[in-house]
C-alpha cells in the first residue's frame, strides 16, 4: 500500500511583491501543482492521499477553483483523499457536491478503517485545545495514521493547536502526518511511532523550503517513507555574490552579470551581496536593481555585506573626527576585540550605515 502525505499547498496563494498580473499566473500554477500531485499518485499506484491542512491560502476561495479540485479528485476515483483543515482553510464552501472519495475531517477526532491501515484525524482550528488529544483512540493491533495541522515545536502559535509530542505517547500511532510548519522535519513519538512534517507543499517563498511531499509505503506491516520534490519550472534562487575582491561598481555589476547569466527568466531571484567590502565602495543598489529587474519573473537584492575597515590607517588620519573617535576607543580600558567592534560600529554610524550590535 502507498500513501502520500502533503500539506500547505496554499492554492490560490501568490507572492505579495509582484503585482496582480503575475499573481494571477501564480494562482493558476498552484492549481497545476495539485493536478501534478494527483497525476503522480495515479502513475505510482498510490492508494491514499493525506492533505494535512492549508490546502488553500485564504478563507475565501473561488468556486471555479473548488470545482477544479473536486473534478481532479473525482477523476482519480481509485484513490482515497483525506483532508484535515488548517488555519487558512474554511469548510463551508467544501460541502456542496463533494467527491465520494474525499473525506473532510470535522473538528472532532474521527477514524476510518481502510483494511491495511486506519486513518484518523481532526480539523484543528485555532479554537481547538488539548482536549482533542484525549479523544484519540486507536487499536494497538492496527497500523494507525493520525493527521493534524498543528505545532509541536517549543514556540507558540495562536493560529493552531500547540502541544507537546509527549502527549501522544502510548496512543498506538505509527505515523503522525503533520502540517503547518513549512520545513521538513521528523522525530519519534515513542518506541512505536514517528511524527513527520511534509514541509512546503506549494507556498511561494525564499528560504530552505523545498516544495514537495512524503511518499509512504507499507509492506509486511512495516512503514517506510521518503521526501519527494516537485519538479517545478519556476524556482526561488538565492545567488550569493561575495564582495571581498570587488572594488568598484563596474566590478560589482560585472560580477552580478556573470553570476546571473545562466539563471532562467521564469525564476524568482534574490541577489545576495555578502562578505567584506572596501569602506569607500559605492554599490549603487538602485542602479544594480534596474539592471536586472526585468530579466526575471521577480528580482530583489539583499545586502548583508560588511564594511572592511583599516583601523590603523584611520588612526593615522589628521584633523579627522574618525581618527579622534578611534583614539578614544583605543585609550579605553576594554579588550582588543571590543575595541575593534566599537570602532567598526562607530565608523559605520559616521557613514550613515546600519549598525548591528
Outline the secondary-structure elements:
Blueprint: E1 2-6, H1 20-43, E2 48-51, H2 63-75, E3 80-83, E4 102-104, E5 110-113, E6 118-121, H3 131-134, E7 144-151, E8 161-162, E9 175-179, E10 185-188, E11 194-197, E12 212-219, E13 222-229, E14 236-242, H4 249-260, E15 268-274, E16 276-278, H5 285-292, E17 298-303, E18 306-308, H6 311-315, H7 321-331, H8 336-350
Parallel strand pairs: 1-2, 2-3, 3-4, 6-7, 7-8, 7-9, 9-11, 14-15, 15-17, 16-18
Antiparallel strand pairs: 1-12, 5-6, 10-11, 12-13
Short description:
The chain has 357 residues and is of the alpha/beta class. The chain has eight helices and 18 strands. The protein has three domains: 2-229, Purple Acid Phosphatase, chain A, domain 2; 233-308, Translation Initiation Factor IF3; 310-357, no CATH class.
Q: What is the average of the pLDDT values?
A: 90
Q: What global shape is seen? A: elongated
Number of domains: 3
Instruction: Tell me how many strands there are.
Output: 18
- Please tell me how large the radius of gyration is: 26 Å
Q: Strand fraction band?
A: 15-25%
Helix fraction bin: 25-40%
Low-pLDDT runs: none
User: In angstroms, what separates the terminal alpha carbons?
Assistant: 55 Å
CATH superfamily of the largest domain, please?
Answer: Metallo-dependent phosphatases
User: CATH first level of the largest domain: which class?
Assistant: Alpha Beta
Structural class: alpha/beta
How would you spell out the order of helices and strands?
EHEHEEEEHEEEEEEEEHEEHEEHHH
- Major sheet: size, sense and barrel closure? 7 strands, mixed
CATH architecture of the largest domain: 4-Layer Sandwich
Amino acid at each position: 500500500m502507498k500513501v502520500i502525505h502533503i500539506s500547505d499547498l496554499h492554492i490560490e496563494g501568490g507572492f505579495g511583491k509582484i503585482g496582480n498580473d503575475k499573481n494571477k499566473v501564480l494562482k493558476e500554477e498552484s492549481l497545476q501543482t495539485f493536478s501534478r500531485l494527483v497525476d503522480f499518485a495515479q502513475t505510482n499506484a498510490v492508494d491514499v492521499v493525506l492533505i494535512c491542512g492549508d490546502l488553500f491560502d485564504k478563507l475565501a476561495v473561488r468556486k471555479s477553483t473548488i470545482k477544479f479540485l473536486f473534478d481532479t479528485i473525482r477523476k482519480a476515483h481509485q484513490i482515497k483523499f483525506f483532508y484535515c483543515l488548517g488555519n487558512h482553510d474554511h469548510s463551508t464552501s467544501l460541502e456542496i457536491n463533494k467527491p465520494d472519495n474525499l473525506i473532510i475531517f470535522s473538528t472532532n477526532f474521527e477514524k476510518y478503517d481502510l483494511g491495511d491501515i486506519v486513518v484518523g484525524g481532526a480539523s484543528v482550528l485555532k479554537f481547538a485545545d488539548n482536549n482533542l488529544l484525549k479523544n484519540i483512540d486507536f487499536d494497538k493491533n492496527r497500523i494507525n495514521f493520525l493527521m493534524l495541522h498543528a505545532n509541536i515545536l517549543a514556540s507558540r502559535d495562536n493560529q493552531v493547536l500547540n502541544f507537546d509530542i509527549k502527549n501522544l505517547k502510548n496512543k498506538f500511532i505509527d505515523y503522525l502526518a503533520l502540517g503547518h510548519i513549512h520545513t521538513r522535519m521528523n522525530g519519534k513519538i515513542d518506541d512505536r511511532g514517528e511524527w513527520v512534517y511534509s514541509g512546503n507543499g506549494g507556498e511561494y517563498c525564499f528560504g530552505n523550503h523545498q516544495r514537495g511531499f512524503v511518499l509512504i509505503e507499507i509492506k509486511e506491516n512495516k512503514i517506510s517513507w521518503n521526501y519527494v520534490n516537485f519538479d517545478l519550472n519556476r524556482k526561488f534562487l538565492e545567488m550569493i555574490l561575495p564582495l571581498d575582491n570587488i572594488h568598484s561598481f563596474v566590478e560589482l555589476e560585472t560580477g552580478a552579470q556573470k553570476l546571473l547569466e545562466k539563471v532562467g527568466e521564469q525564476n524568482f531571484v534574490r541577489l545576495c551581496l555578502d562578505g567584506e567590502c572596501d569602506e569607500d565602495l559605492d554599490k549603487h543598489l538602485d542602479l544594480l536593481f534596474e539592471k536586472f529587474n526585468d530579466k526575471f519573473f521577480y528580482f530583489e537584492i539583499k545586502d548583508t555585506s560588511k564594511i572592511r575597515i583599516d583601523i590603523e590607517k584611520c588612526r593615522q588620519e589628521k584633523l579627522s573626527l574618525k581618527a579622534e573617535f578611534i583614539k578614544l576607543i583605543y585609550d579605553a580600558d576594554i579588550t582588543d576585540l571590543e575595541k575593534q567592534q566599537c570602532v567598526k560600529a562607530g565608523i559605520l554610524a559616521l557613514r550613515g550605515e546600519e549598525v548591528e550590535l
